[in-house]
Design a protein that fits this description.
The complex is a heterodimer of chains A (282) and B (975). With 282 residues, chain A is an alpha/beta fold. In chain A, 23% of the residues lie in helices and 26% in strands. Chain A has one domain: L-arginine/glycine Amidinotransferase, Chain A (5-stranded Propeller). Chain B has a 7-stranded antiparallel sheet, covered by helices on one side. The relative contact order of chain B is 0.13. Classes of the chains: A alpha/beta (282), B alpha+beta (975).
């Protein structure tokens, strides 16, 4: 039976991209941290390995592009929901070309491609929180109203609500989904404020899991056939208090993933992959 | 047959006559019916008129008598003339047209019922009939209004549509209902009103095909079978192929199953059941609206979406805000502005009002109406009582059908075997057929003046928001007059024609077997509360909600369960069950109501002449936001509500009394009810317009729907008041405690009440009371103390006040007047006293709106000048005296409950006090009866008192105050 909006967290494929050497120096960042390129690459390899080996996803690895220092953060280049992929127009000019390879990759996966051609529109995938029932789009430095409108047009089934992101880079810099109807949220004031807005805008009911560290609230949730609820989250090394919170999730397979280096250039866990659910054949 | 204007006056007459007859018989059949009043009312009114006014009054009496008789004699040959029939063409959901003839003067529900019969549809409350107005805008046919007043021009073409989209279609009882819902949704999808993705189009399309054509069968269907059917606004070959692919997988699925699947998918669409209206933001303060750079949010184009859960604000396709119904305190419109008043948030102190500019006045009104209806249907247990027409401080429009809760209950009783019906609609969706049209159901229009269902005319409240501006009003009045003029003499509205909404509602009630389920409203309410907390909070108890929300703010990493339900905004606002009860029982619809009867019963335990403790919780508690649970829209209480003012005046000596927090109070409802002893009934009936408005305001909760009134309101107001013969009388009945105790009925005879019916009724009531009391006296441990309201002498003078506040003063004045009256134990005396002491004011206070209009001066005859006369009659038990100087005692508890029936709203205050070791329970009931001239006030009053008595059989009535205020506009008798 065909059912829409079912199977939140079901993924079969992941698109990732390598880390260019330029990331260390040129990638955009909100802080002045020094990135250890090797460390970042090791980290990323481990991340991809989890997706491929541990979780059994079909991983599409795109080559790094030295002219695109931020290209590892593929999430910002595309929003995929169901059979539709929206190729974004990233808010940072230096990142616009990241979408090219992404588009090709998603085309190859037979997704319906929607492109954001409007030159007034900007949207980073990191500002898009899909809850399984609706979208929240953070209006941030990287994403504007027009970008959100185009997203709403691309995914007509769903309500698309806008949420001002007053602090932090992206909406998902302090939140993500931790399961169907479960929002993981940081405890900072801006995070809580944003959550309140989401709450007000929504017709749906959500549970929330509050973690002490905002960035730790960025997790990857999946619901996989033989593994059930899976949550990729930060390591205890980075955010011990937040990890204690995750450890209370009894129904989830918890997989700590190190993100020490990428986080220095504002890369969170969700940033590094685009997850896709390709049905065998409908 | 098509519409004509004017030439049909002849036809109208007999029909009006006929209607009058019908109503009469109906009234006769139903003792509670308010309908029989108009005829006897003038006489009764005259009878009770204080002497000072007598002469004038008599003249008026005669006049109205005359007019009513002449009215009757005008059409002596009733039923002889042929009734004018009109042909109506209704576009059905399956694409066919249904043609049916209805009487020209038939009301909307007649047509609706015929269509539903034709469709074999029982769960019809989700549906409605639309028509296009002169601007080609879709309007919902008001079932309570005559068709011809709604269809002003053009042929009588209608469409049958889903009006309220059930959030969970699987809860519909019958497949046939789901089938029609599917048809509507298919239309919504194909027309683009319900946007969906390609994938959704394929899924919905595939179920449609399965439902209509059955299993995929290439031999029978061929390969191109599918292009006949429309699935999407832009249907592509690719889509059709995908639909076919899916269709193949459905072998064996029945049509009904396919429709269930269809609905399960459709209901999840974000625009499912959202009625969109174009608007612009007014003001630039807008929560969470992120304007584009350099853009002021003022004047931003938005869309307002009305749906089951509340009001959605869209900017383009984006949702930029959402106001769940519980978050909205009030909705109103003025000219082309639409306003919502928002409950303050968790950390906010003040309510905020957000304004939207609609394309024109009619659009604003249409939006307002849709909001009223959706709120009522989805949030309330039973519809609000429509406000009284002739006082028309606001629109009298209310949703008059059943609510979702009611219709669910009713349809649960449907016992017929599933009707067979043919699903044959596919043809209508073939490409050639043009569907409804606009991509989105936009109610966007150019400003046009059209009095179709009445231009707003009156204003209400202290709130600017609801007030109509002068020009507007003038214009509308003119409109209304022209309207009337057009119709010609025979069209002159008569009270009988101006059937109150309430009556209409009755008419439109479903067949008895279905209807009976809604008879016991309170039962319904109860079970509704049990089963469905209503709204978003479903499932969670308040306690659970609290629990879940509390840790939210101080997350502690090292503590146990971290997952907390994130409540919806509305859930958060929702109140505990008790409070909800309150909401649902709460008086509704009194807001714009004109005619007001208040009735308060103070319970007294008369074991000795002990004084009463503090009685009566200040009504102001009721006004507390918290009390009004769950934030249904509630009439704005404002700071000065006459009720609370009155209440306080009454309680002058009790000032020390602590106001009990509403929450605590509520918990004790049942207990207190069982404890009560002795009842004091103060019956207060007020017909002062402003007064009413005010009281309505204060007591009302539920959807507050102040708005401009209908176009013809003015006219009707005039007639109505003429018919009623404005007068205010306050009657207080107090039976001496002794009498009560001995069980010998207090003789309340010949009450100087305006109506005989009332007098006799009261007498009966009295007897009952005494019986009850005798049983009651045995309980010694409880003290019954009568708490007589302290009269404030200065309040006795009703002031004719140009402002609403002043009006409220005048209302309290009349109350005070009533207290004056109580001294006289016998009716006659009281009558005398009325003459002497009760100030009969001829209030020149006009309705607020007219004030705005002419600055408080009587300018023209068309302007309704309100003359208010006040009369007080009091009956009171002797003990009242004793407790005048009583020690207030210690307040144990106090609570306020509200309940309502069709035409009455009851607010009950129960106070328990202890004084000198004796506990006393006092119940004070205030019953507000809102009604038109056509409502039998006596009947309603009697009913209300009776019900009150039935509720508290173990208590005695110690005081009844009837306060009635009527406006009269002498010059404009029948017009």
């Amino acid at each position: 039976m065909a059912g829409l909006m079912a199977g939140f967290g079901h993924y079969t494929h992941a698109v990732v991209r390598g880390i260019p050497a330029s990331l260390a120096k040129e990638a955009l960042r909100t802080s002045q941290a020094e990135v250890d390129l090797t460390g970042a690459r090791t980290e990323h390899d481990a991340y991809v390995e989890v997706l491929r080996t541990k979780l059994g996803l079909e991983v599409v690895e795109l080559p790094a592009d030295e002219s695109l220092p931020d290209c590892v953060f593929v999430e910002d280049a595309a929003v995929v929901c169901g059979e539709t992929a929206l190729i974004t127009r990233p808010g940072a000019e230096s990142r616009r070309r990241e979408t090219e390879v992404m588009k090709e990759a998603l085309k190859d996966l037979n997704l319906n491609i929607v492109e954001m051609t409007d030159e007034n529109a900007t949207l980073d995938g990191g500002d898009v929180l899909f809850t399984g029932r609706e979208f929240f789009v953070g209006l941030s430095k990287r994403t504007n109203q027009r970008g959100a409108e185009i997203l709403a047009d691309a995914f007509k089934d769903y309500a698309v609500s806008t949420v001002p992101v007053l602090e932090g880079l992206h909406l998902k810099s302090f939140c993500s989904m931790g399961g169907p109807g479960l929002i993981i949220i940081g405890s900072s004031e801006p995070a809580q404020k944003a959550l309140k807005i989401m709450q007000q805008m929504s017709d749906h009911r959500y549970d929330k899991l509050t973690v002490p560290d905002d960035i730790a609230a960025n997790c990857i949730y999946m619901n996989l056939p033989d593994k059930g609820h899976v949550l990729l989250h930060c390591t205890a090394e980075e955010f011990p208090e937040s990890v204690k919170v995750f450890e209370k999730l009894k129904d989830h397979m918890l997989i700590p993933v190190s993100n020490l280096e990428k986080v220095k250039v504002d890369g969170a866990l969700t940033c590094c992959s685009v997850l896709i659910n390709k049905k065998a054949n409908i | 047959m098509t519409t004509e204007s004017g030439a049909d006056s002849e036809a109208k007459q007999p029909q009006a006559k006929k209607e009058a007859e019908k109503e009469k018989t109906k009234a006769a059949a139903d003792p509670a019916s308010p309908q029989k009043q108009p005829e006897q009312l003038p006489a009764a009114v005259g009878h009770s008129t204080p002497a000072r006014k007598e002469q004038e009054q008599q003249e008026e009496d005669q006049e109205s008598h005359r007019s009513s008789t002449s009215r009757l004699s005008k059409s002596p040959l009733r039923g002889v003339k042929k009734v004018k029939m009109m042909q109506c063409k209704i576009a059905l959901l399956d694409g066919t047209d249904y043609t049916v003839n209805v009487e020209k003067r038939a009301k909307g529900h007649v047509l609706f019922d015929k269509v539903c019969d034709h469709l074999n549809l029982l769960e019809k409350d989700y549906f409605g009939i639309t028509y296009r107005d002169v601007e080609n805008q879709k309007n919902w046919l008001d079932p309570t209004k005559e068709l011809k007043k709604q269809i002003r021009t053009g042929p009588w073409n209608f469409a049958f549509n889903v009006k309220f989209y059930p959030p969970d279609p699987s809860q519909l009882s019958e497949d046939i209902t789901r089938y029609y819902l599917c048809l509507q949704l298919r239309d919504d999808v194909v027309s683009g009103r319900l946007p969906c993705s390609f994938a959704t189009h394929t899924v919905l399309g595939s179920y449609t095909v399965q439902s209509e054509l059955g299993d995929y069968d290439p031999d029978e269907l061929g390969s191109d079978y599918i292009s006949e059917i429309r699935f999407a606004p832009n249907q592509t070959k690719e889509l059709e192929e995908k639909v076919m692919e899916l269709h193949k997988t459905y072998k064996g699925m029945t049509p009904a199953e396919a429709e269930i699947h269809f609905l399960e998918n459709a209901k999840k669409l974000s625009m499912y059941g959202v009625d969109l209206h174009h608007a612009k933001l007014v003001g630039n303060l807008y929560e969470s609206l992120a304007p584009a750079e350099g853009e002021d949010s003022e004047g931003v184009e938005i869309m307002l979406g009305v749906c089951a859960s509340g009001l959605l604000i869209y900017r383009d396709r984006l949702r930029i805000n959402r106001f769940a119904w519980p978050k909205i305190l009030k909705i109103s419109y003025k000219r082309n502005n639409f306003y919502i008043k928002i409950r303050p948030g968790e950390f906010e102190q003040f309510e905020s009002t957000i304004g939207f500019k609609l394309p024109n006045h009619r659009a604003a009104k249409r939006l307002w109406k849709v909001c009223v209806e959706h709120h009522t249907f989805f949030r309330l247990v039973s519809p609000e009582v429509p406000p009284k027409k002739f006082l028309s401080l606001g629109s009298k429009f209310r949703y008059s059908g059943r609510t979702q809760a009611q219709t669910r209950r009713a349809s649960a009783q449907i016992a017929r075997p599933a009707p067979l019906f043919e699903r044959s609609s596919s043809k209508r969706y073939n490409m050639s057929r043009s569907l409804d049209g606009a991509p989105i159901m936009e109610n966007h229009e150019a400003p046009v003046k059209d009095g179709t269902d009445g231009a707003p005319k009156a204003v209400a409240k202290e709130d600017i928001i609801t007030s109509v501006t002068t020009e507007r009003k003038a214009e509308e009045e003119k409109e209304a007059r022209e309207d009337e003029a057009q119709k010609g003499g025979a069209e002159t509205p008569e009270p009988t024609v101006t059937t109150p909404l309430r009556h209409d509602t009755k008419d439109s009630e479903p067949p008895p077997e279905v209807a009976k389920h809604q008879t016991n409203i309170s039962e319904l309410k109860r079970s509704f509360l049990e089963t469905d907390g209503g709204g978003g909070a479903a499932g969670l108890t308040e306690w659970e909600k609290r629990l879940s929300s509390s840790p939210l703010r101080s997350p502690r990493a090292d503590e146990a369960p971290m997952i907390e339900p994130l409540e919806l905004q509305d859930a958060e606002d929702e109140q505990p069950a008790g409070e909800e009860t309150k909401e649902e029982l709460g008086p509704k619809g009194a807001a714009a109501a004109g005619y007001l009867v208040k009735y308060m019963a103070d319970s007294i335990i008369t074991d000795g002449p002990s004084s009463s403790g503090p009685h009566g919780i200040s009504l102001s508690t009721t006004m507390d936001d918290d009390v009004f649970v769950d934030g249904t829209l509630r009439e704005e209480a404002g700071d000065k509500t006459p009720d609370s003012q009155e209440e306080e005046e009454e309680e002058v000596s009790d000032r020390s009394m602590v106001k009990v927090s509403p929450g605590a109070v509520r918990q004790e409802v049942s207990q207190a009810i069982s404890d009560k002893k002795g009842t004091l009934i103060i019956f207060k009936q007020a017909e002062n317009k402003e007064d009413t408005e005010y009281e309505g305001t204060s007591e009302k909760e539920g959807l507050a729907v102040p708005a401009e009134s209908e176009a013809d309101g003015n006219q009707r107001e005039t007639e109505a008041s003429a018919a009623v013969k404005g007068q205010t009388s306050v009657v207080k009945m107090l039976s001496p405690a002794v009498e009560i105790k001995t069980g010998d009925g207090t003789q309340i005879k010949g009450i100087d009440s305006p109506k005989k019916a009332m007098a006799s009724w009261i007498f009966e009531e009295k007897v009952e009371i005494s019986e009850v009391t005798s049983v009651f006296t045995k309980e010694v441990e409880e003290l019954k103390a009568l708490e007589e309201p302290q009269q404030k002498a200065e309040e006795i003078q009703p002031k004719s006040s140009p402002t609403r506040i002043a009006v409220s003063e005048s209302s309290s004045a009349s109350l005070a007047a009533s207290t004056l009256g109580w001294v006289s134990p016998s009716q006659k005396e009281s009558a005398d006293q009325d003459e002497k002491e009760v100030v009969i004011t001829e209030n020149e206070a006009e309705p607020a709106n007219s004030k705005a209009h002419d600055g408080g001066e009587v300018v023209a005859k068309d302007v309704p000048v309100v003359h208010t006369e006040t009369k007080t009659i009091t009956y009171e038990s002797a003990e009242a005296d004793t407790n005048g100087d009583a020690d207030p005692g210690v307040l144990l508890s106090a609570q306020t409950i509200t309940s309502e029936t069709t035409s009455t709203t009851t607010t009950t205050h129960i106070t328990k006090t202890v004084k000198g070791g004796i506990s006393e329970t006092r119940i004070e009931k205030r019953i507000v009866i809102t009604g038109d001239a056509d409502i039998d006030h006596d009947e309603a009053l009697a009913q209300a008192i009776k019900e009150a008595k039935e509720q508290h059989p173990d208590m005695s009535v110690t005081k009844v105050v009837v306060h009635k205020e009527t406006e009269i506009t002498p010059e404009e008798g029948e017009d």
